[in-house]
Amino acid sequence: MKQIRFLFILALGVLPATAQVDYSVVQVNEESGTNFTQITTDNDYVCMPEVKRSGHGINWLSNRILDLSIDGSQLAYLSARSNTTNIFIKDIGKQGASVQRTNRQFVLDFTYSPDGKYICFSEANGKLNQIFQTSATSGYVCRQITSGNKDYSPVYSADMKNIFFARMENNGASVWSYDVGSNFLSSYTKGLNPCPTTGKNSILCTRINAEGRGEIWRVNYQTGIEECIVSDPSRSFTTPSISPDGRWILFVGSNALTNGNTQYFNTDIFACHVDGTQLVQLTYHAADDISPVWSRDGRFIYFISQRGSATGTANVWRMDFAY
Questions:
Q1: What is the pLDDT of residue 20?
Q2: pTM
């Protein structure tokens, strides 16, 4: 299966090339008490965000490639078919086939608009990435938002007046916004994976520290106040998103599994309060759990994993969130 080859984050560590993972296990002992439900099937051809391991560490795709419709009944995901990568929509309550939503060559990531009418996505075009907006329900017509740069991870502000996104530049990634009414572009701060906060003039984002590890930061773009809210000396964190009730932050983190003298580094799902307290690790499987999103009611988390597949095939899973 084709993988998305677009990496941003380095988590430090040492990995033996001979490490083996039993993907067929659905859940491990540390996850007892949590219900896991497989949402997609192998025939949905879910894209597995690329995770690279080497003697120097672990790298993974930090873009958002899952989202839910505004009523929570449909799952949008990236699927690799016929040498293209596009957004497909699946009815969560049915076992039918998915419906193709975009007709592009290489979609990288996407999000729904807060009113559920649009999907904003980025697409790779040669050495550049461009951002587009399209209908969430019908047609393939797209409105181009940016061009001529390496732009990705678009996400709407709550009032839909702006689309925040990350731009890769010579000095690293930075957060920008596009004013929907005036077509004006603004640069805010360094970072990637922008996530606007509800009712406040601030965003969450990922920043890479001097040691190469990802941290979660909150940036108030009116006052200029910037604060690191999630950091760890041995882990890397990316892709923050705020729960529907505004109390929790969900994100991906690196994890080290130890077996005797052997350490195996993978990605798991974490959460914490919006002030950075009460950090909890939600998954522990040796498979890579990645790209988490909240259900619209905040009771569940949807994510991509190879768990439950003897061949390591990626699918979308749902887990309880009972905190």
A1: 76
A2: 0.93
